[in-house]
Structures are given as structure tokens and as C-alpha cells.
Amino acid sequence: MNPICQTLDQWAEAGWLRRLDAALAAFLSERDLDASPPLLVAAAVLSQMEGRGHTCLPLAHVVAPPLALLAGPPEAQAAVHALWSTLPTTLVEWVAALRASRVVRDARLDDDNGQPLVLGGKEAAPVLYLRRYWDYECRVARQLRQRVSDRVPVDEAVTRTWLDQLFPTAVCQEAKDAHRGDTFVTDWQKLACAVALRARLSVITGGPGTGKTYTAARLLALLFAVDADAQGLRVALAAPTGKAAARLKQSIDASLAQLQDALGDRINLSELTQRVGAARTLHALLGARPDTRQFRHNASHPLDVDVLIVDEASMIHLEMMAALLDALPPTARVIFLGDKDQLASVEAGAVLGDLCRDAERGCYEPETLRYAREVAGQDLDLIYQDHSGAAPLLAQQTVMLRESRRFGGPIGKLALAVNQGDVRASLSILSQDKTGAVVSLAASGPEVAVQLALQGRAHAEGGYAEYLQAMATRPDFGDETAHTEWVRRVLTAFDRFRLLCAVREGDWGVTGLNRVVQQALACAGWVKPSGEWFEGRPVMVTRNDPTLGVFNGDIGIALRPVTRGAPLRAYFMDGPEIRSVGVSRLAHVETAFAMTVHKSQGSEFRHTALVLPPYGLGMLQRELVYTGITRAREAFTLVAADPGALTSAIQHPTQRASGLLTLLADD
């Protein structure tokens, strides 16, 4: 065996690397018998980074020992230093070693002969890719450039008239009152609608309560009003999870109904509402197929849609984004909604973060400023103008909503402080809030989290007792209408509280807390576990199963069906509808008293408890805490064993390596 591969195998055996990381290096050494040590080491580190959500490896990261990536005990750090003492010390030498191998393609110089690794990036900042991630990024960049460049003719006068009706002056006055003393007051929602109208792709980003779906509903109404073919407009709604999709549909429908009341007979939005079908998960929209990464809809078999609105776009990983953009007809519009500051996707890529790199600053070119003034009636402050002379193309189709009309009070202030990296303000808000909306609880063990789960806390009573009490009101067997309403009450009550975890494993993680919460509820007589399945067991689907109509992230509860003696079924809320699946058919689920923050995206709970473990503080991220806080509507509780956990998280913003912006800038 190659000596480097042998070393990497030993590291994997010790748990310093994944076995997959060492296996990639071994595979490459078999493909290239002359593979150099820098190549094999870079490949293992690249694989390790992919597992952490990065899409590529900036080679500058491996010139010096990458201790932050290959974290471990002191002996691991010593081994890393020892190996790196035998490797090149300059970036030029690393690049030369990679270019010399037959398993590496230099994207600027070499033909594509199926090489498993690709060397990309700029000459001064080279990056290494696994072949498939290079392909994904190239496809996404190509589609993005094409769609934002494909400008749609806009009748500016007609559009201005309709925008003034959709966003009346009274709404703007609220913003002025909120910003009393400001020289420039911008209705960002109105601007976002105008901008989205003129191209095949747009991005609307903003924090909780900034009105992303409110804006999307008005954009649909605007399209319906100005499109000559509005009667045949095909509209689709989608999100990464079933919960997020259901919330998107509910919000759009409610906004359109309110808008119809405001506009009267000037437009018939009821017809538009009927044309907007049920929101679906991205997997369902694209036609996921069992046992394959391929979808039924692709470039050869595109989606039958004219307008696609995708919510919670921060959760979309690179591979899914490539598949989605490929499946869109060239003439279709796609509007991405999402909070750029939330956690990035679990899988590799931080696509929304890349797309919104310039959202805070605007970076609008003169033509965009003119368009904003003439079509949306918005004179943008010069701070949002691009002064480089080379305004980013994507920035012209990106609008950040900046005024939260719902998410205020202590929860909103805490989320803002965390998002801004302000440790002092965050700790002050947690310690000084007198309303009970935000509370920090020190914990020597997970029992504090268990107590919250059982009955909540002062100013945030309930916990899971509420859904279990609802279960006790079960109607008589045989009454289907009463049974459906009962199921809805149980599911709604369960969604009022949730334990969110930063990690999966251990006593402070999802697996440990699910176990002890279930035991505590059983001891209190709330549930009666007898094997894997029992009435009242909350479950989360962990794998898409289109044949059953369940998808990764869906949450349901095992309950007795309407017929006496029938076996348990898992019931799921799909917007206002209830659907169920026999529990014996659900092979890929896990108990869901506790869930990871990642899995909670797209959901909101009346009371959210975020549990931070006493270990791995360097792995806690600012975005994780921000996302956990913004899942709470009325109450947020932080449970931390280590008083430094919150500080550590706030001080560590997520940084994912990606070459997407470089590819977007290339002609």
C-alpha cells in the first residue's frame, strides 16, 4: 500500500478522518500509481471538507497544516504536523503536484477525460473539486447567468400603476414612522416585486417577519395583472420540506385573500388562487425516484410551470439547486425566498449565501437605480449603488427586505444581536428580559431540557403536555369527522413546543434527549411505550418515499385510526389537510421529541428550547443559534451546560468554501 494511504488509513482508524476520506485517496492511488503525496493528502482533505458542507478545497488551506479541519486530540495534531513536514511549503508546488497527475483535470488547460478531480478557481487562488461538485457548480452558474441576463420586457407605466395599488401609501407610511428621521425610506417589498418582474430569476432575502411570502403573493398578483397570457399562467410553489411547503401555501393563500378584499373588483384573484396548486417539496416537484439520485423532471423533461416560487432557499444544497434549475423551462420565472443568515444546507453548498453575497450592500448599477425609481417609485440611497464600475449581474436581481413587521420584542432583538456577532448585547438581552420571552437556563445535565419538554417553564407553560392532553380527548370510534378534527388538534398542539439540538449524538443530542424525554413521559403516565411504535409517538421522516407521499423532514404522530381495533397509523398535517400512513410501512423514521436545528428550518413553534452541549464548542456556529432563536414565535429558552457555549457560537460564523461566485464572474 502507498505509505501516504497507509497513514491516512491509520488516521481513519483512530477517528481523525472519515473512512470515506481515506478511501478516496486509496482509489486515486490505484488510478495513478505515481500519485504524489500532496495529491493524496489534498484528496483526503477535500473529502473531509465535502463532508462538512464545502464544495471545494482552496489549496491555500493546505499549504500549512490544516489543524482547524483535521481537529482531534494532541496526538492527532502532532501527526498532522509530522506529515506536513514532508509536504511542499508553497502553493505553487502543491498546484504543480496536482497538475502532474492523470486523475486531475486543470479546467483552464485540460480536456475533460473523466478525471475524478478538477483544478479550478483563479490562478492566484486555485481550488480543488470532486468532479461531480465541479459539474454542479458549473451548471448552476451557467443557469444563473442565463436567467438573470434574460430580461423580460416590462411596460413600466402599467407596472407602476399596479405596484402603487398593491403597495398603497399607507403601508409606506408605516415604514416611515418606523424610520422617523431617516433621509431615505425604501419600500423594499415593492422594489422586490418590480425587480422580479424583469428577469427569469430573482432572489428575495430577509429575516423573519420581513414579509417574503407577503411580497411573493403580491408579485403573483402583479404578474396576473400585467401578463397578457395570465389566464393560462401555471404557478407552482415549493420548499425543501413538507412543513415549509405547507406554510408557504397557507401564507400565499391568506395574502391573496386579503389582497382581493383590498383591491375589490379591480382584479379577480380568486382565479389566480385556484391556479396555484398545493405547495410541494422540491423532491416531489422534481419527481424523486426510489434508489436513484436522478429525478423524473430534468432538462430533457422540464417542469410544466411558468412561475415557480421556492421558499426556505437557504436549505437548498448545491446538487438540488443544479437539478432544480436544469428542470425549469427556459421561459419560466423562478423566485427564491429565504433568510441568507440561516444555517446553510446539511449537504454540500451554501447556495443562497453565495447568491446573496451583495444583498446587504445592494451593489445596484445605474440602470437598476433608474428602474427602481421609474417602476417602483423608489429613490435608493447612494449607499446601495455599485461604485466599482462592474456591478455583479446577480445583484441586480436580488433584493433584501430589511423591515420586520412581526418579529420584534426580546426574541427579535436577541436574534439581531446574535446575527451581528454582538456577544455583549446577546448576553444582556438574555439576562435582563423581564417579560419571560427569552430565558437562559444553566444546566449541569439534560434534565433541565427534559423538564421543559414535560411542562414548559414560567411564562411559557405547556411543553409536550399540551398535545398529550389533546390526545386524551379522543372521540368515539367511527366518527370520521370528529376523528379528523381530533387529529388536527393533536398535531397542532404538538407543534407549539420543540426541543432543538445542536448535535445528533450524545446525552445532549437528538438521540439522547429523545430517549430520556420518552422515558420521562412514560414515568409520568403520558405515553405507554411497548416496542418501537406506540400511540403518541412523534416521528420525523428521514428519507423520501414518494410512493407513500412522505418526504425527508415531515413530522407526524402515531395515533389510533377511526376504526376500532385497526393498527396504528402515523398522521401528518399537509396544510389544512390530514394524511396518514400505516406505521408498518414507515421504515425510515425517528422519534421527534427533539430534533436538530437543521431539521427545524421552515418551521415555527410557540416556544422553542435550544440545547447547547458542553462539548465541541468550536463546532457551534452563529447561524445555528440564530436559526434556533428565529424558530420561536412567543418564547425562547437557551439550555447550556457551558456558560461559554453561546459566546463561542456567536464568535464562529459559518464559512463554506465555494467557487460559485468565481464561476458566475467568468464569461
Evaluate the radius of gyration: 26 Å
Largest sheet: 6 strands, parallel
Helical content, roughly? Answer: 40-55%
Read across the widest sheet, the strand sequence of neighbours is 7-6-8-9-5-10
**Proportion of residues in β-strands:** 15-25%
Structural class of the secondary structure composition? alpha/beta
Q: Which spans have pLDDT < 50 for at least 5 consecutive residues?
A: 170-183
- Overall, the morphology is globular
Strand element count: 22
Describe the protein's architecture and organization.
With 667 residues, this protein is of the alpha/beta class. Helices cover 42% and strands 15% of the residues. It is built from 27 helices and 22 strands. The longest helix is centred in the middle third of the chain and has 22 residues, at 242-263. It is globular, with a radius of gyration of 26 Å. The relative contact order is 0.10.
Provide tags for this entry.
22 strands, 5-stranded parallel beta sheet, single chain, 667 residues, 42% helix, alpha/beta
Brief sketch in words of this structure:
By secondary structure, the protein is an alpha/beta fold. The chain contains 27 helices and 22 strands. The strands form five sheets. A six-stranded parallel β-sheet has the order 7-6-8-9-5-10.
